[in-house]
Every structure is written in structure tokens, then in C-alpha cells.
Amino acid sequence: MKFKAIKLKKQNKAEKIKELKENDNSPKVWVNVLKGSLVALSVSLVGILIFAFFIKYVAVPTEAIKPINQVIKAISLLVGAFVALRKVDQMGLINGLLIGLSYTILAFLVFSILDGNFEFSKSLVNDLLFGGLIGGICGIISVNFRKKTK
């Protein structure tokens, strides 16, 4: 009799695992990464455009342009992570890191096409490190922020 009870428990666990796999409606990691990167790129393009109009009418020191661009990138990554990781309950660091790295590569390609100059330099490596770091932090924040607001 005990043997049958144990066997039933194993079947129930196996059925639950199968059911969880079939009912898994959460998007895959690569879909989240693509979505977050594209949203961040869109926000970044709008932010850079607004900043360009601002520079045209207000005297902004040359030294302030690079830090403001980094702030625009960080805000873009935060928005992209929040949008992409809306339905994710775990792995915020990994998802955010991948979003940050892929956003940086996409942004490099888009802005290089707009500029007409593909230049691989030390600043690209710095941007990749910055994008990965900020993306990971934003992924952690977005996943944990959602848990607290439930």
C-alpha cells in the first residue's frame, strides 16, 4: 500500500511539471532581450533628438554632452528593462545584462549608420561595459520593483 502511495505522488509531481511546462506563458529570454533593446533604442533616439534641439537653442558646454548622453542611455535602459521584464519574476540581472549589451550594439550600429562612420575604438568597449552594468542594475530593479507593487 505504501508503494502505491509513493508511486501516485511521483505521478502527481511528473504531471505537475508537465502541466507547468505546457502552461508556461512567460516570454522567452531572447524575446525579452529583443523587446527591451528595441524599446531602449527608441527612447534613446527620442532623447538624443530632444537633446539636439536643446543644444541648438541653449549654450551647452562641450564637456557636458558626454555625461548627458550617458544619462540618456541609462534612462533608456531603465525604460527598456521595465517594459521587457514586466512579466518576469526572476533572473533580472541576466536579462538586464543581455538587454544592456544588445542595446549598446544596436545603438552603435544605428548611430554609426546615421553618422556614416563605423569606428571601433576604446569608447565602444567602455559603452559595452557601461551598457552591461547599467542594464544589469535596471533588470534587478525592474524585476524586484514589480514584486513589491503586487
- Mean pLDDT across all amino acids: 82
* SSE order, one letter for each helix or strand: HHHHH
Number of helices: 5
What is the tally of beta strands? 0
Total separate domains = 1
Largest sheet: none
- The oligomeric status of these chains comes to single chain
The SS-based structural class is: mainly alpha
First-residue to last-residue Cα separation: 44 Å
Share of helix among residues?
Answer: over 70%
* Inertia-based shape: globular
Radius of gyration: 21 Å
Beta-strand content: under 5%
Unreliable parts: none
Task: Characterize the structure shown.
The protein has 150 residues and is mainly α. The protein has one domain. The chain is built from five helices and no strands. It has helices at residues 2-22, 29-57, 62-84, 92-115, 122-148. Helix 4 (92-115) packs across helix 5. The longest helix has 29 residues, at 29-57. The mean pLDDT is 82.
Features:
150 residues; mainly alpha; 5 helices
Compact summary:
With 150 residues, this protein is mainly α. The chain has helices at residues 2-22, 29-57, 62-84, 92-115, 122-148. The protein is globular, with a radius of gyration of 21 Å.
List the helices and strands and how they pair.
Blueprint: H1 2-22, H2 29-57, H3 62-84, H4 92-115, H5 122-148
Helix pairs in contact: 2-3, 2-4, 3-5, 4-5
